[in-house]
Structure formats: C-alpha cells, structure tokens
Design a protein that fits this description.
With 457 residues, the protein is an alpha/beta fold. Helix content is 38%, strand content 24%. The chain is elongated.
Length: 457
C-alpha cells in the first residue's frame, strides 16, 4: 500500500511538472509570436541610431536618447516611467585625429588612428617621436626605461583567433588598451599606439576606454586599424621608419548630470521583488551604437511591450533600465545599485543584453547552486528558439554592482563571431543589425523574465 501511494505521488508530481512545462511552453510561444508579428525593437533601434545617433555620456546625443527611450517605454505600456539622476564624465574627442609615419627616405604615410576614450590630448602641435614596438607587457618591461623614455610605445598585440568565443580574446587584448598607456608612461614614454581590438584585418580603428593609474603621467593614446598595425610593424622590421607624428584634440571636462531611464510593470503578487532587465544607453561617438548597446536597450523595452500586449501581468515587478555611462565610467549601473540598496526591496534577478543583437545562443548566470539548478530546469523551454546554451558564470557590467544585494545576474549570450568586427568602430550602425536576430534575442529575454516573474528564484 505504501509503495502504491508513493508511486501515485510520483505520477502526480510528474504530471504537475509536465503540465507546468506545457503551459510555460505555450506562454513562450505566444511571446515569440507577438514579438515576431508586432515587435517594435527594430523600428525603435532605427530611431535611436538614425534620429539620435552617437550617444557618448554627457553629450547632447545622450540627453536626446534619454528623452526618446522614456517615450518608447511609455508607448510600450510601462505602468511607470521615470528618470534616475546620475553624474557622468564628459569626455570629448574634438577635431579629427592626425597621424603620419615619417620614413627614413623623407616620405610620409598617413595613419588611420582614433584617440582612445578618456585619453588626454596631445600638445597643440602634436607629438613626434621614435617608436618602439612590443607584442606584450613582458617585452615592454624587458626594454626598460632606457629604451622607452621619450618614445612612443606601439602595442602590437593581436587578438587570439584560437578562442571560439571572441569575448575571451577581447578580454586578453583589452589589457593593452586599458593599462597600456600608464604602463608605458611609467617607463617614460610620451605616447601610445594600440593595435585595434578586432579579429579582422580592415581599415577601421576601434576606440574604447583607457584608464590612467594614479601617480603616473597621463600620456596621449590612440588606436590604429589592424591593417595599419600590420603595415607599421613591417616598416619597423625593415628599418624604414624614422618616427611617428600624431595629434589628438580630446579632453576630459567636468562631470555633468545625466539619467538612467526606467520603465516598470508592477508585480501583482510580490511587487517588492524586483526583476531588472536592461542595456546601456550610451555609446561611443564614432558610430550609431547599434549593437553596442542600442540592441540591448530596445530588446529590454520590447520585454515590457510584449508582456503588456499579451496581458501577462507579472507576479513580480519588472523594470526595464537604460543604463547611462557604461562605456567610460559605469556611473549609471553604480547609481542604480546604490539606489536599490536603500529601497528596502528584494532585487531577485537582473538580466543584461550587452553583447550585440546577434542570434541568441543562451545565457550565462551568476547564482547560488540552488538558484542555478532552478534556472537549468527551464533550459528545455529555450531549445525551440536556439537559446539553450546555459552556462554558470555570467552577467553584465551594469548589473554587476547588484550582486552584493544577493541578486542573480544573467547575461544574454548571442553568437560572438561578428561582434568584435564592429565593436567601438564606425561600422556599428543600424544596417549591421538583422531584424530577425534582434527579435529572437528579445524573445529569449522576455521568456526568461516571464519565468522568473512567475516562479521566482
């Protein structure tokens, strides 16, 4: 009899679980159909790219983006839309950069360069100096101050093509952009040229933030295109290069006020349990910031729109957040977490899309073992949408500051193969985004938000 009762209980439990899975599968199919049939992410992205354009924090473009994404959230049906103030750095590029390779035979070759974000400008007449090429920091240290002082350091570090996930290669190469200027300055260098962080050979230099170490001189720093890096290295190897001249006009101004943009659907059952979904609203100034991170912003807005259009009132409160200043300061993400800490609410999960609007492959998540197990129970629901690669470890820069609050961090992981081709370059434009891939990412994000809102973590 006991065995029969145990068997019956197991059958009931299995049936209940299967019924829930079936209901969730149907709900996600409705979400998918709604986004593919009536979605506004692509049209919102077009507006953000073509009508607003570059959105470097503190710029007029960033201010307009705040205004327009607040409008988009209202039109998406958010119960509440508000602006969360934060102070942001104001770095300006100024006039276009100039650069030449001066050859020993008296000829000059123009260099395709851009200033690194947050870098200081050159003196008004530019800088002209001999160049030392290094492949890594070890080679720099081996040269020592005697051979670096008064020179321009050329970091010719190639992104490692052996990594299948290009973000791994980017993480390694990023050290030369971020730390390179200060490490060269510590040995007396007067300027730095960094090979663009991209796996492809082309003529498009990519910008991105550098960081000056306190106590070391702040020296001018530029990125050169990958083709330019190859050519420059060849000139050095053949003994044809006498010096490099470059001039930049960038400067860091005083901090200015800006905003995170927040749109909210209030939860019906647990309104004080908060689910955050977002992307960063700022972009670099060279292009439209379509993949980085206009895509993540409009996908997050689409989460709100799809849930409201389908009448799926979540049990827990869902907030879509357009974070300001991820690119060169992370002030928006830091401010959001600071405010969250004082709200007296439970921030149970935060989901970020900041890896481009390409085909979603799955999610990475930072959570406890029990929470991870709960997330993994939903993996099969994402198989029909090609987004079922679930991996422990992940999140995002803007949501990272929420982790000390016990928040589960989840990052949408799109296919990474093409992202670094465009990242921080003038080619990151609306035309580089596929509507279908963008919508599929929005489907995956909305499905994950729906499940967490329904069941918690």
């Amino acid at each position: 009899m006991k065995q029969f009762l145990l068997f019956s209980a197991m059958i009931c439990a299995f049936s209940s679980s299967g019924h829930a899975q079936s209901a969730d599968s149907l709900a996600i199919k409705k979400i998918s159909d709604e986004i593919f049939m009536n979605g506004t992410a692509y049209s919102n992205l077009k507006y953000l790219c073509k009508k607003v354009g570059p959105r470097l924090s503190g710029s007029p473009g960033a201010a307009l983006a705040v205004e327009q994404t607040a409008r988009m959230l209202r039109e998406a049906g958010a119960d509440t839309v508000y602006l969360q103030p934060c102070m942001v750095p104001r770095w300006v590029r100024g006039a276009k950069e100039e650069g030449n390779a001066n050859l020993v035979d008296g000829k000059k070759i123009q260099l395709n360069i851009v200033a690194l974000g947050n870098a200081v400008g050159t003196p008004s007449g530019g800088i002209n100096a001999e160049v030392v090429e290094v492949k890594n920091f070890k080679e720099l240290e081996m040269l020592g101050a005697d051979r670096v002082k008064g020179k321009i350091v050329f970091y010719n570090y190639r992104m490692d093509p052996r990594y299948i996930n290009t973000f791994q290669a980017y993480g390694e190469a990023g050290a030369y952009r971020g730390q390179g200027p200060s490490r060269a300055a510590a040995l007396g260098a007067v300027g730095v040229i960094v090979r663009t962080l991209s796996p492809v050979l082309d003529d498009n230099p990519h910008t991105g933030a550098t960081r000056y170490e306190e106590g070391t001189p702040m020296i001018p720093a530029v990125a050169i295109s990958t083709n330019g890096a190859v050519e420059l290295s060849k000139l050095i190897a053949e003994g044809k290069l006498r010096s490099i001249y470059f001039k930049t006009n960038c400067q860091m101004l005083e901090d200015v006020p800006s905003f995170n943009v927040v749109g909210e659907i209030k939860g019906t059952t647990y309104p004080d349990e908060i689910i955050t979904v977002g992307g960063h609203l700022d972009s670099w100034d060279l292009a439209e910031g379509a993949h980085d991170d206009g895509a993540g912003c409009v996908q997050s807005i689409e989460v709100i729109r799809a849930l409201k259009s389908l009448g799926m009132q979540p049990k827990r409160t869902v907030r879509a957040v357009m974070f300001m200043n991820e690119e060169n300061g992370l002030r928006g993400g830091t401010k959001y977490a600071e405010v969250a800490k004082g709200e007296g609410k439970k921030f149970i999960m935060a989901l970020e899309s900041d890896a481009g609007g390409f085909t979603p492959r799955g999610f990475g998540y930072s959570a406890s073992a029990g929470q991870s197990a709960q997330i993994e129970k939903w993996q099969s629901l994402f198989v029909p949408y090609g987004a079922s690669e679930f991996k422990r470890g992940g999140g995002g820069a803007d949501i990272g500051p929420l982790r000390p609050l016990g928040t589960v961090l989840i990052g949408l992981n799109p296919d990474s193969q093409r992202y670094m081709d465009l990242h921080h370059a003038k080619t990151d434009v609306f035309e580089a985004v596929s509507e279908r891939e963008l919508n599929l990412g929005a489907v995956a994000m909305t499905a994950m938000v729906f499940l967490v809102a329904q069941y918690g973590l």
